[in-house]
Amino acid sequence: MAVYTQVSAEALADFLTAYDVGDLVAAKGIAEGVSNSNYLVETTRGRFILTLYEARTRAEDLPWFVALMRHLADAGLPVARPVAARDGGALRRLCGRDACLIEFLPGVSLSTPTEAQAAAVAAAMAVMHRAGEGFAPPRANELGQAAWRGMAEAMGPRLETISPGLRARVMAEVTALEAAWPHALPGGVIHADLFPDNVLMLGGRVTGLIDFYFACNDLRAYDLAVMETAWAFDAADRFLPGHAAALRAGYGGLNDAELAAMPVLARGACLRFLLSRAQDWLDTPASALVTRKDPLSYLRRLEHYAS
Ligand SMILES: Nc1ncnc2c1ncn2[C@@H]1O[C@H](COP(=O)(O)OP(=O)(O)O)[C@@H](O)[C@H]1O
Ligand SMILES: N[C@@H](CCOP(=O)(O)O)C(=O)O
């Protein structure tokens, strides 16, 4: 359960007075998520998501994320709009954190998506990439290829406490990807974390693309590669070729260079999530109500591409 910051009913009711959203009826911490604290808030006027931003999300990036969510919602994508307070601002402070009240979207996250559902989400990603063309300024990917060596070195020998040999394997992969990374592919605004738990669906319809807090400018095909590592493996980390093919068909329009680079991009995506999961594995405070994700699941997926 991702609730790092506990919000009392009194503090929440007071927070809501800054908005024209009615009075507090109920609030519950949300079980899903890893990075930030989220509450489902019900008021006399409807439902909202309250997000309190934790350490990994930098305060100076928040206006960019808010602007991007609005830009994509304006373009017709199923992206939640941050709610403006009476003073016009979308970002406020609550319990010592930056906080945002966000439109609630219908739908559920899938644990075992079908090929058709994967294709529908990849198609939505392609629309999102096109909608991002008009969005500026660019934001660098802080967890992109250039960051991986530093992330790995910062954990250093502690990687061995997760699994013996992990440090050497990670460093070898960092080096291999530094040599092989296809920097010249088409770039743009990408989501960078479009896992099944960041998509809401009703049947075959995509009703929500959420959690834009890793969004940035990077290679578009890398965004699809991130999706492949998350949507095209089963719970035992076995590759699902039908899902991978459905993702590429749903996205459409990859050029030859992008198609040829997909295995390298997918290795990079695996390394990125292996590294961030390892950080969380080693650093999550015991008091946090959060289910840490298994870094070694992403090592097994990495070996699929690297072997
Ligand atoms: N706009 C929204 N509408 C409905 N549910 C949402 C919305 N935003 C988040 N959620 C719910 O909250 C959960 C955690 O949100 P998420 O942004 O993924 O958190 P984190 O940043 O911690 O990963 C999601 O899995 C979803 O269940
Ligand atoms: N999708 C990542 C976790 C990132 O956390 P999120 O809750 O912000 O999506 C992973 O699976 O490692």
UniProtKB/TrEMBL annotation:
Keywords, alphabetical: Amino-acid biosynthesis, ATP-binding, Kinase, Nucleotide-binding, Threonine biosynthesis, Transferase
Catalytic activity: L-homoserine + ATP = O-phospho-L-homoserine + ADP + H(+)
EC primary class: transferase
EC number per UniProt: 2.7.1.39
A single GO molecular function term of this UniProt record: homoserine kinase activity
Pathway(s) of this molecule: Amino-acid biosynthesis; L-threonine biosynthesis; L-threonine from L-aspartate: step 4/5
A matching Pfam family: APH
Gene Ontology biological process terms, A to Z: threonine biosynthetic process
Domain Aminoglycoside phosphotransferase: 28-253
Cited SUPFAM superfamilies: Protein kinase-like (PK-like) (SSF56112)
Stated family: Belongs to the pseudomonas-type ThrB family.
Protein's name according to its UniProt entry: Homoserine kinase
Organism: Sandaracinobacteroides saxicola
Lineage, broadest ranks: Bacteria, Pseudomonadati, Pseudomonadota, Alphaproteobacteria, Sphingomonadales
Gene that encodes it: thrB
